[in-house]
Amino acid sequence: LSPSVVRRGNTAVAAPAGAVAAVEAPPAPTGFAIAAAVVIALQGVLYTYDGWTGVIYFSEEVHDPGRDVPRAMIGGVLLVIAIYVLLNAALLYVLPIGAIAASKLPAGLAAETIFGANGDTVIRVLAILSMLSAINAFMMMASRTLFGMSRDGLFHRVASRVNRGGTPAIALWIGAAVAIVFLFIGAFDQVVAVLAFFFVVSYTVSFTSVFILRRREPDLPRPYRAWGFPFTTGLVLVSSL
């Protein structure tokens, strides 16, 4: 083995490369560290997949919500899963796993491998354009939340006003203002962490509401019933908590 230099106090001594690796090896992660790493990783996953419930915000505007809402939710999740699996398979086909782990934008690196120096720019432009649809969906969802809360007396009544086209314009402007504030309060990772937390809070409230409504209003028309209730709903509720 070729010798490497290891410093002990003020003295530099020669040591085999294997010995250096043994000295510099980080301690094995504990159970808490692993759990924390999983939670942090899930923040990005939650942000990626959230929106699967987006059609619920427009239930009042859907012609046949009992049929179309569950089909949109299930179909949307399956479609997103398929897209991400195919994308990751493509990345693994083009790049070694080490290069993917070391890159902040593996898709850009893969594009450079395929298309040359302009590949990274192409991917970034496509990402920006694709974000426009996500921004549109999130802004519409946020406005419907404030609109519904204002009608129930949980927010100022002014947010319940709609324009000639039926859009809650004031609620839309309020949501846009809050989003702009988020742009200035921290880095992207911090904003995602905050959003992921509230996404899970929203899930928890929703799953709890299913149990409450089943008990309080057992005779309410339910065109679609959750598979495996109460076990499946209870499982995701415990996971959210």
* Proportion of residues in β-strands: under 5%
Span of the ends, CA to CA:
52 Å
Continuous helix count: 9
Which structural class fits the helix and strand makeup? mainly alpha
Description:
This protein has helices at residues 17-24, 31-49, 65-94, 97-102, 106-115, 119-151, 169-185, 188-216, 231-240, and strands at residues 3-8, 11-16. Strands 1-2 form a two-stranded antiparallel sheet. Residues 1-7 have low confidence and may be disordered. Helix 6 crosses helix 7 (169-185). It has 9 helices and 2 strands. Helix content is 67%, strand content 5%. With 241 residues, the protein is mostly helical. The protein is globular and about 60 Å long.
Task: Provide key terms for this protein.
single chain, mainly alpha, 241 residues, 5% strand, two-stranded antiparallel ribbon, 2 strands, 9 helices
Topology at a glance:
Layout lengths: L2 E6 L2 E6 H8 L6 H19 L15 H30 L2 H6 L3 H10 L3 H33 L17 H17 L2 H29 L14 H10 L1
Antiparallel strand pairs: 1-2
Helix pairs in contact: 2-8, 5-6, 6-7, 8-9
